Amino acid sequence: MKSKLWITALITSAVIATGCSANNTNSESEEMDHSNMSEEEMKNMEGMDHSNMDMEGMDMENGHASHTNPLELNNSTGENELALPPLVEANDGVVDITAQQGKTEIFEGVQTDTYGYNGSFLGPVIRVSEGETVTFRTKNDLLEPTTFHWHGVDIPGEGDGGPHQLLQPGASEDVKFTVSQGASTLWFHPHPEGATAEQVYKGLAGLIYVEDENSKNLGLPDEYGVNDFPLVFQDRQFNENKQFDYQAVRNEDGTIGDTMLVNGTLNPKLTVGKEKVRLRLLNGSNARNYTFKLNTGDSFQQIATDGGFLNEPTEMSEIILTPGERAEIIVDFSKYDASSDVALVNEADSILLPFKIDEQKTNTVEISETLNDYVVTEEEKNLPVTKKLELFGMGEMVYINDKQFDINRIDFTQKQGETEIWEIYNKPDMMGGMAHPFHIHGTQFKIVSIDGKEPPAELQGWKDTVAIEPDQTVKLAVKFNNKGIYMFHCHVLEHEENGMMGQVEVL
Ligand SMILES: [Cu+2]
């Protein structure tokens, strides 16, 4: 038995080592010397039941390789103008949001069965302001139960839309709350136990923009669809009939695809002015990581993280977003002209979104040098660790503190309004392990340290999802402003469903 395990591990390791060079996994797995395996590593290996491992997912020939060996993405031909989600604001304090099924023409002349909010595919951008009391009037017109989860929103647990708040087909629910956080780009998606990944995959995802007094006075581009664009990145795998067949392509370590959709548009291009343009990026994929950069090699400015503005615009040449994460960037198109070849590309230079520059459209904006007053205080830096989490495993055997999700078990309690330090360690396995995007519901947290060091400038801002690399330890300052039960989990949606999730009750 042991020798069989060895062989499985070696084969798997070899596949990963040859396949992951383009991805940002740690290099240790490539250098790992199996003859020097430590006692502990042996133990870990025995603890994992490799016989149940989805070896199909490791196969590079069958079209759905594993998370650590991504399928290559298509290059956008730019033949379709990017779809712009409808912008919705509260009407008499109410925003109607209906989950529904429909058909969408993603490929010319073909109807694909899809899910959407208030439409056949994806959802609107809901714009709210800090201090506003709003009712999200949710309705489930699907033929299966769903929930409405507001990712990144500071909201009482009963309205958070986690697995406890299941809405049956035909049912409605009013979620009333007061927006009590600053300007940010948040999102919403379903969260029913066992069906989150598939429902998101089929198209249930929308955005929430929070504006505040500050955000209006920073000189930032803020004309929706003119110089301020949402960009929802999702990779998908279509079958020969151009349908989503989620169960057929599901990968227990994260379902990825070879076809890029941005705001649901295949082969998109975006027409922009010869001016500074704000792009709000959401990695809305089930599992794929993106390294966003410009094909010109030019840098751009990052202005916001998941939950708010950075203190100042930060020059970046690339941004990595794992599933669930957002970033806002400013690209200065004034230095290009109509003949320029400019595109947003992914790490291996696959073209995600080519830009067409309309020279008639210009605008000079003066962006403030100071955007926010975010700070990790000395007190927060000196707080003791009061919650320890260890992420471990892969595929169907993913654990937090050796446990898998149980809706009837509360893993932690925390007092409302009290800041605690959560220390999260991503424990590598025999094969090196993989990065887990760790997300906490109902709050925005601060990254205090990564492996004991101050986080890089682009992570010094409010976050609700943080990528934790194998063998990395991340300390977070976490405070809940509301009470209730909240999920914390890996945002690789298949990991979440396989049990890499727990519950904290805020009292
Ligand atoms: Cu994970």
TrEMBL record:
What are the record keywords, sorted?
Answer: Metal-binding, Oxidoreductase, Signal
Q: Does the keyword Cell membrane apply?
A: no
Q: What is the protein's name according to its record?
A: FtsP/CotA-like multicopper oxidase with cupredoxin domain
All copies of the Plastocyanin-like domain together span: 100-214, 253-335, 387-506
Query: What top-level branch of life does the organism fall under?
Result: Bacteria
Family named by the database record: Belongs to the multicopper oxidase family.
- Signal peptide stretch: 1-22
For this UniProt entry, the molecular function terms from Gene Ontology, in alphabetical order, are: copper ion binding; oxidoreductase activity
Write one Pfam family the protein is assigned to. Cu-oxidase_2
